[in-house]
Specification:
Elements lengths: L1 E5 L3 H10 L5 E6 L4 E3 L11 H7 L2 E4 L6 H9 L7 H7 L2 H10 L7 E4 L2 H11 L3 E5 L9 E4 L5 H13 L9 E5 L5 E9 L5 E3 L3 E6 L2 E7 L4 H17 L4 E10 L2 E8 L9 H4 L4 H9 L12 E8 L14 E5 L9 E9 L2 H11 L11 H8 L1
Helix pairs in contact: 1-10, 11-12
The structure holds adenosine-5'-triphosphate and magnesium ion (MG) (2 copies).
């Protein structure tokens, strides 16, 4: 079968690697350059998008910020999964909040903002501090402001209004203000839903972010009550969207109660650990779902952590001496802070994982890989 992926980054690359043993052949559409590419080598094909759509048995996406005309073209083929509603919702925080309200899934209290008076109103209603986010763009914590005092309102508004003004009638730009949640930790749930409505959910993942960027994910800490809340939210949202493929939901854990942070209608960075931690990775399950194949096993094989390697030109070779460490490199040009690859670390117990994370920081210095030591200390 031929699969077309919208987006030609690391997620398309890892989906393609997972699809090959299933006899799924992947081509990627680079939305920026408007070229059809090989997902691993970047080789550019002469195929047009229209031709690639015709050639494809199924079409999917590695990200949610897809131009409307491309999305419409793909959806009109009736081969696009997870579907237009899911991608649109995941790409617009105001639609995301509306979906959460509709399905009765709790999120951080919020106010939508299109003019300055709304921002002043949000400060009054929600209190300070506020996290202010662009609704239609942003990833890795980009497109966000933290409002801690009234004196910042003018300056933040002037930046916000630039963003709002850059929208168009067809593609409006809006802003959302959220109450800053004093969470104990951040967790996420990743799962797959197939064309018949069957659902397979991975164990809960605990995530450490630094400056808005995911640095570390850990799977295998048991917390059944929190996991049950996350699974319930997953099932409600996936069913409401009639979702097909892998879906990720990020949460804040506030004293054992989960609030949704955001939804990603795709494979997700906090699910990369499944490549070593489970029989069937999130990438394989996404490919299976969109290709109409049965979903694979999502049970935990062993405790696994994922460390994002940021900004480095290469994988630090010393980490490969460890039998339980696996490298996944994305083949991108290095830039400071850019996600260049990740390593997965498997362990027999949380103590074992804490020891391994501690040892790895010798080769992955804390200033380059922040959050590892803090998380390791929390494990024991
Ligand atoms: P991603 O790369 O995950 O898509 P993003 O740019 O969409 O990131 P968010 O996930 O919304 O951004 O926010 C990034 C991080 O900022 C969160 O993981 C969390 O650590 C912090 N954050 C966001 N919203 C809030 C909030 N309302 N209260 C407290 N912290 C928040
Ligand atoms: Mg996001
Ligand atoms: Mg996020």
């Amino acid at each position: 079968m031929n699969i077309l992926i919208l987006g030609a980054g690391q997620l398309a690359r890892m989906m393609s690697l997972a699809g090959a043993p299933l006899n799924l052949n992947v081509v990627a559409y680079d939305v920026g350059s408007k070229q059809i590419k090989h997902p691993l080598t970047g080789e550019v094909y002469s195929t047009s998008l229209e031709q690639a759509i015709l050639n494809a048995d199924a079409i999917t996406a590695e990200f949610e910020h897809i131009p409307d005309d491309v999305l419409t073209l793909c959806c009109n083929s009736n081969k696009f999964y997870p579907g237009k509603a899911a991608i649109k919702t995941g790409g617009d925080r105001s639609l995301e909040k509306a979906l959460l309200d509709k399905t009765n899934v709790t999120c951080a209290p919020y106010q939508l903002i299109t003019e300055k008076a709304h921002l002043e109103h949000a400060v009054k209603i929600l209190g300070k501090p506020l996290v202010i986010k662009t609704c239609q763009a942003g990833y890795d914590g980009k497109g966000q402001w933290r409002l801690k005092s009234d004196s910042q309102i003018d300056e933040i508004w002037s930046q916000m209004s630039d963003f709002i003004a850059s929208g168009t009638e067809l593609a409006p730009h809006t802003i959302i203000a959220e109450k800053m949640i004093p969470f104990d930790r951040e967790v996420s749930i990743i799962g797959a839903r197939d064309k018949h409505g069957n659902v397979a959910i991975y164990p809960l993942t605990e995530n450490e972010h630094t400056n808005g960027v995911l640095t570390l994910s850990i799977a295998g800490k048991n917390n059944h009550s929190v996991e049950a809340q996350a699974n319930d939210a997953f099932t409600k949202i996936a069913n409401e969207l009639n979702y097909v493929g892998v879906l990720a939901i990020e949460f804040f854990d506030v004293q054992g109660t989960l609030l949704v942070n955001e939804i990603a209608p795709r494979v997700h960075n906090s699910g990369h650990w499944t490549q070593q931690g489970c029989h069937c990775s999130q990438f394989e399950n996404h490919m299976r779902a969109v290709a109409g194949l049965p979903l694979g096993n999502t049970e935990l094989k062993h405790i696994t952590a994922m460390i994002n390697v940021l900004g480095q030109p290469n994988i630090p070779a010393d980490v490969l001496k460890y039998a339980d460490v696996t490298s996944h490199w994305y083949g991108k040009t290095a830039k400071p802070g850019r996600k260049m690859g990740h390593i997965n670390v498997s362990a027999t117990s949380m103590n074992d994982l804490a020891d391994k994370l501690g040892e790895l920081t010798e080769y992955l210095p804390e200033q380059d890989y922040p959050g590892i030591l803090k998380a390791a200390a929390n494990l024991i």
